[in-house]
Amino acid sequence: MTLTAPAPPAPAGTAKEPARRRNRNGTSAWTPWLYLLPALAVLGALLVYPVYQLGLISFLEYTQAQVSGGEPTSFQGFGNYTALFTDPQFRQVLLATVVFAAACVAGTLAVGCTLAVLLTRVRALPRLALMLAALGAWATPAVTGSTVWVFLFDADFGPVNRLLGLGDFSWTYGRYSAFALVLLEVVWCSFPFVMVTVYAGIRAVPTEVLEAAALDGASQWRIWRTVTAPLLRPILAVVTIQSVIWDFKVFTQIYVMTNGGGIAGQNLVLNVYAYQQAFASSQYSLGAAIGVVMLLLLLAVTLVYLRLLRRQGEEL
C-alpha cells in the first residue's frame, strides 16, 4: 500500500479568487473607487470635457466668422501652434511668464516658510493675530486686493510714495517696477496657504528630534535645513506645485494693476495674452492653443518635480 503525502495548503493570497479582491479589513478592493466615483464624475464633467474642447478648438480655424456662422470651420492641424511659436511676441511673453512665476513661487515659499517658523516661536496671542491677518489676506478677492495695492502705490495719492519720499514716481509705468508691484501683491495673497500648511507640518515633527539637534549645538537655521525641511519635503512638494500652478496662471492681478498688460503690452503674461487673442482679437483658436501650451507646461513641471522627489525616496 502506497501512502501519499497530503498536498501543501495553498498560499493565503491565492486560495480563492474572491480573497484576492479583498483588503486586509475584509472590504472589497473596489470600495474606495465607489466612494470616489461621484467626485470623479464631477471632475470629468468640469475638467475633462472642457480640456477636450480646448484641445479641439486649438486645431481648428475658429474666429468670429466661424462663431457667427459666416464661414465654415476648417481643420488647421498644428497651424495655430506654428503661428504661436514663430511669433516673437509669444516667445517674449512665454519667457516673461516663466521668470515672473518663478519669482512669485520663490517669494511665496520664502515668506510662507519664514512666518511658519515664526509661528512656532511666538506666544499664543501674537500667533493668533498673525494667523488672522494672514487668513484675511488670503480671503481677500483678487480684484479687491489688486485695487487696494494700486491705490497704495498710486503716484498722486498713494501713501507708500509719501513714506518712501518717491514723489510722483509711477510704479506701473516701467516694465520691471510694474512686475515687482504685481509680484508683491501675488506674494501677499498667496503666502498664507504656505504658512498654514507648513506650520501644521512643523507641529507634526517629533519634538525629540528637534531637541536632540539643539543639544548637539545646531543653530536654528541648520535645524531647519537639515532636520525640519527634509521631514517636511512631501508637504513642501504640495505647496510648491500648488504655488507653481497658481502663479503661472496669474490673470487678475496683471490685468487690474497694469490695465490689461501694461504700456504696449510690456507686462503681458500668458493668461492675459490668451485673453487678448481670444476675446479682444476674436482669434479663439489661438487663445485655445495658448491654453493648451500652458496646460502642457504645468503638467511637465509637476511630473518632473514629482519624479525628482521619488528619486530621493519620498512618498507622496
What is the overall number of helices?
15
Low-confidence stretches: 12-20
**Can you list the strand order of the major beta sheet?**
1-2
Number of strands: 2
Radius of gyration, in Å, reads 27 Å
Distance between the termini: 62 Å
Overall body shape? globular
Structural class: mainly alpha
Commentary on this structure:
The structure is a single chain. This protein is mainly α. The longest helix is centred in the N-terminal third of the chain and has 32 residues. The radius of gyration is 27 Å and the shape is globular. The chain starts with 16 loop residues before the first helix and ends in a 5-residue tail after the last helix. About 3% of the residues have low confidence.
Question: What labels would you give this structure?
Answer:
single chain; 316 residues; mainly alpha; two-stranded antiparallel ribbon; 2 strands
How would the blueprint of this fold be written?
Blueprint: H1 17-20, H2 31-58, E1 60-61, H3 64-67, E2 74-75, H4 79-85, H5 88-119, H6 124-139, H7 142-152, H8 159-164, H9 175-204, H10 207-215, H11 220-231, H12 233-248, H13 252-257, H14 270-280, H15 284-311
Antiparallel strand pairs: 1-2
A few lines on this structure:
The chain is built from 15 helices and 2 strands. With about 325 residues, it is mainly alpha-helical. α9 packs antiparallel against α12.
